[in-house]
Amino acid sequence: MTETSFDSAVAALYSSEHQASTAEALALTAQRRTQTIADMRIYLQRVGLLENGKSVLFQNKRLVHITGTKGKGSTACLCETILRQAYGLRTGLFTSPHLVDIRERIRVNGQPVSPEVFGKAYWTLRQMLEAPAGNEPNALPVLPGYFRMLTLMALYIFSHYEPSIDVIILEVGMGGRFDATNSLDLDTTWKSYACGITKLDYDHVRVLGHRLEQIAWEKAGIFLKNKLSPGTPRPPDDVGDEIDEASATKVPKSTSVKNDCKYFALDPKKASVQQVLEECALGEKLCFVAGSYERELPPDAPIGLAGNHQRDNAELAMALCQAVCDDKSVSSTDIHAAIAQAKWLGRCQTIVLEPKLNIRLDGAHTVESVHVGLEWFDQVAVPGAQRHLIFNCSHERNPVELLERFVPLGFHSVSFCKADSERPSAIQKPSAKALLQTWQSSIPKSEDSNGDDSPYSHLPDQPEATWQETLCNIWCALERELLPDSNKAVASGTMTLSASLDQIRQSLKEDEGASGEVLIAGSLYLVGSALSALCWKETDAEGTLIADESS
Ligand SMILES: Nc1ncnc2c1ncn2[C@@H]1O[C@H](COP(=O)(O)OP(=O)(O)OP(=O)(O)O)[C@@H](O)[C@H]1O
Fold first, then answer.
1. Which domain holds residue 316?
2. Whether residue 309 has its Cβ less than 6 Å from ligand 1
3. 201: Cβ–Cβ under 8 A, 6 or more apart, which residues?
4. In terms of domains, do 336 and 358 share one?
5. Is 325 among the domain residues?
6. Most exposed residue of 74, 213, 400, 549, measured as fewest CB within 10 angstroms of its CB?
7. Distance between CA atoms of 378 and 21, rounded to whole angstroms?
């Protein structure tokens, strides 16, 4: 088979040309983070998306910009479906990460762009980026990093190849203030815009800060007015003053009256966080939605995305769409119908694999969202069914914190499978022993614990073990700690996905007539591998990606 321009573009995107695959490259990327907007504007200029610092290409388009810790992708997808189906607009959607195919990240009117468009955009941009430039800062790499490059490609496709797009929906990669998606509209007069912040939680804390107030400040950098005055307000520091939380319900200026509002956030339910968001709005109206505020979506209205948390995301999406289309009048019935049809794969998704074998997929990988995913699993799993877990997580996460949530759910077996594809990472794997010792030291000692003896001293410090075996060790140790008297799950450390499923089928066969509930969780990459192995199909005619869902 000959290599297409799409194949070579993907290979280049995953190579060290765009990936920080050494510790030095990673450190350099981290150093440049707060220069992202300035850097991106140089790249935008080089590829003709800005001319003399100005862009006219987006003047007739609407923009929805979404950040948050959890729910960005779901909210972006809900917005896209509402704007396309209820408002009748032509949409351009940029999201991350992808599950199976990189083209999922750039969608036009709901469909991933074709391999040809993706390949052409990559190589066209690359040629412009590599052309001799004028007197630009030496330290700026000629080729942007992976996410910056994909952002450029999305903007280029939306403006050059799909000029009839009416509305662009951009999901922030990480944070917001210094995110590549935040670089465009300094000089652009959009036809209309709205910015939304979804659920705030602790993720990427090493970069964004350890306090929710710091994380909120990073996210609220997408508020347009804040972008125009980037120096204000100052970021909260590591040990900021705590606000009296008793005043949490008395939010000072923010409102649930959405007329003329352009900035929205899910109610963070913490006064000090609300205050940071408020300050970043710099006097513009900011509306909190869901939480204790009046709801517009009736409690019985169906939502195409599973899980109770999607009700909050749908409220936020409705508010954003109304704000960005305040010149249009659309009935609530049409909006509710669109919400019912929204699809976002790999998050609280069910595949009925066989009549008595349900696969439940959830790519959640933070403590809070794992909790939400487990709540959903517990709710939908057939009562009395044998429960099996297939798990993996990136070694940038703390697997102990994640796995301890799964242990009490009573799994019959646990396998730790590798995903087919993972982005290269320069971060070193910690050992099971080190992770468990940190966990142990953070929980109160029981009365009868006999001093400082670590129960994990038998584990090797620098295991030659694979990451899967490390996870397996952690699971077994957690089971001993958390469920000392119960039956243990069979935990296997080096299974492939299909071998795990075979083992599960065998176990169901032995337990005659038993139903099986398989939860695949912990990593979007693993969920992507499962989707592609179980139900992903690709139509050949237009290169349209579809997942053949059984339910
Ligand atoms: N409003 C919410 N509150 C709490 N958890 C949520 C919420 N929305 C989504 N989640 C959880 O986060 C997971 C990821 O959802 P989604 O893809 O929409 O978020 P995201 O912000 O794009 O995160 P990621 O980049 O990790 O995919 C879901 O599987 C769910 O468990």
1. 5-234+251-341
2. yes
3. 69, 70, 212, 215, 366, 367, 368, 369
4. no
5. yes
6. 549
7. 39
**Residues contacting 437, CB < 8 A, separation 6+:** 454, 456
- 396 falls within a domain: yes
> How many other β-carbons are positioned within 10 Å of the β-carbon of residue 108?
20
CA-nearest residue for atom 8, ligand 1, is 71
DSSP state of 287: E
> Tell me, what's the pLDDT at 59?
86
Task: Pick the last residue of a domain from 311, 341, 371.
Answer: 341
Give me the pLDDT at residue 408, please: 93
CATH number of the domain to which 171 belongs = 3.40.1190.10
Q: Which two tokens stand for residue 338?
A: 């669109």
State the pTM of this model.
Answer: 0.87
User: What are the tens digits of pLDDT across the range 475-497?
Assistant: 999 998 888 888 888 888 888 89
Same domain for 377 and 335, yes or no, is no
The interface predicted TM-score of the complex, written ipTM, equals: 0.98
Structure tokens at 498: 């299909």
Residues of the chain with pLDDT under 50: 248-249, 451, 539-545, 549-551
How far does the centroid of ligand 1 lie from the alpha carbon of residue 52, in Å? Answer: 38
| Distance separating alpha carbons of residues 360 and 350, to the nearest angstrom | 5
Taking the centre of ligand 1 as the mean of its atom positions, its distance from the CA of residue 233, in whole angstroms, is 28
Tokens of 152: 């450029």
Residue 240 located in a structural domain: no
Type of residue numbered 70: K
- Rounded Cα distance, 357 and 408, in Å: 21
**Domain ends where: 316, 341, 366?**
341
Residue 39: how many other CB atoms lie within 10 Å? 22
What is the total count of domains within the chain? 2
Q: Which residue owns the Cα nearest ligand 1 atom 9?
A: 71
For the chain, the first-to-last Cα distance in angstroms comes to 35
pLDDT digits (tens, 9 = 90+) for 406-437: 999 999 999 999 887 666 666 677 788 888 88
Q: Let me know if residue 245 belongs to a domain.
A: no
